[in-house]
Amino acid sequence: MQQQTGGVSMSRARTRIEAKVRTLRHEAERVLGIELVPAHGGTFPRFTPGAHIDLHLPNGITRSYSLVNSPDEVDRYVIGVLADAKSRGGSRYVHEQLRCGAVLTIGAPRNNFALQEDAASTLLIAGGIGITPMLCMYRRLREAGRAVRLVYCARERSQAAYLDQLGTNDGSVQLHFDADHAGHPFDLGALLAQQPADVHAYCCGPDAMLSAFETACASAGIGNVHVERFAASAPAPDTPQGGYTVELAKSGRRLAVPAGAALLDVLLEAGVDVDYSCREGLCGACETRVLGGCPEHRDAVLTQSDKAANAVMMVCVSGAKSPTLVLDLA
Ligand code: FES
Asked: What is the CATH number of domain 3-106?
């Protein structure tokens, strides 16, 4: 089904929006802020704190970036892009070739990192460029008068973006720069041990920080744990396995997924209308309902409880433990 909203072409499976780069702004060392506006006027689709958009770059690479600005703004999207030293072409293109006035194709916002806005207390922990979703979340909770604390860590102050947008005078923001502490990272264990058990704790940052955060939450008995991983720091997906059958419940078609093949490739080659973007198990675009069989989850989107429930899977990187998978596809 097609809908039109402010010049935006949308379908359930894929949404593509033309966006123009209005401003590029130096936000910190190696961090470029990009303001996008609808290329043909109108408004962008609304989003919620923690959401991200996909940038479909002219070099054929797609990358996901968290939205920094207020969800109340429908006339623009703002993202922050770190120049990744290990860039495979995404952030390098953005930093070296993107110019004001360029028109890009972007995806509609998706949110794999949704904010529980009515939580009694919220702890946000950002590492480096992980500040981008947190800034939007923090401001939202502050505006609503909610109890929130933001801990923002970076190696050095010069690498910390958006410091000028944080009200740091009332104690709700704590900054930690490793360089000021003889290179030591922030003590997440000590902080989380002091939190009430019903706190909603969020973390976005490098893998080492996320691992420390999850361990500390488990030790502290905190159950409301939310993490988001960077595309750039996530492990590359394993070699696709295969050697099973996928059944498409809506059409009754059965497709063989040969050994060594990726499920998404088999679906696309068979003409199945399935959305996808990153192909790395990071963005959530290819989330598909599982109606039978047992998936082998390899993505970084679903929580452990989501994975245990086996109700959905990311078909770009995940496979099957059972001989047959039944998916909610035609
Ligand atoms: S395409 Fe991004 S998670 Fe599958």
From this structure: 2.40.30.10
CATH of region 244-327: 3.10.20.30
* pLDDT tens digits, 120-139: 999 999 999 999 999 999 99
Domain ranges in the chain are: 3-106, 122-229, 244-327
Atom of ligand 1 nearest to the CA of 283: 2
Q: What is residue 110's DSSP assignment?
A: B
How many whole angstroms from 313 Cα to the centroid of ligand 1? 10
How far apart are alpha carbons 263 and 273 in whole angstroms? 13
High-pLDDT (> 70) share of the chain, %: 92
DSSP letter at 245? Answer: E
Residue with tokens 């028109």: 103
- Which CATH code of 3.10.180.10, 1.10.287.370, 3.40.50.720, 3.40.50.80 fits the domain covering 122-229? 3.40.50.80
Average pLDDT over residues 78-94: 91
CA–CA gap between residue 206 and residue 123 (Å, rounded): 17
Instruction: State in Å: Cα 13 to ligand 1 middle.
Output: 13
Mutation probe of ligand 1 site: the residue of 62, 283, 288, 307 with most atoms within 8 A of C-beta: 283
| Residue 240: predicted pLDDT | 53
- Residue 168: pLDDT band (50, 70, 90) is low
- Position of tokens 């050095």? 156
Ranking 146-160, 169-183, 238-252 by mean pLDDT, the lowest is 238-252
Looking at residue 244, its pLDDT comes to 94
- Residues 150-167 as b/e (b if ≥16 CB within 10 A, e otherwise) read bbbbbeeeebbbbbeebe
pLDDT per residue over 137-164, tens digit each?
A: 999 999 999 999 999 999 999 999 999 9
What is the whole-number distance in angstroms between the Cα of residue 235 and the centre of ligand 1? 14
Pocket, ligand 1, Cβ cutoff 6 A: 276-279, 281-286, 299, 301, 314, 316
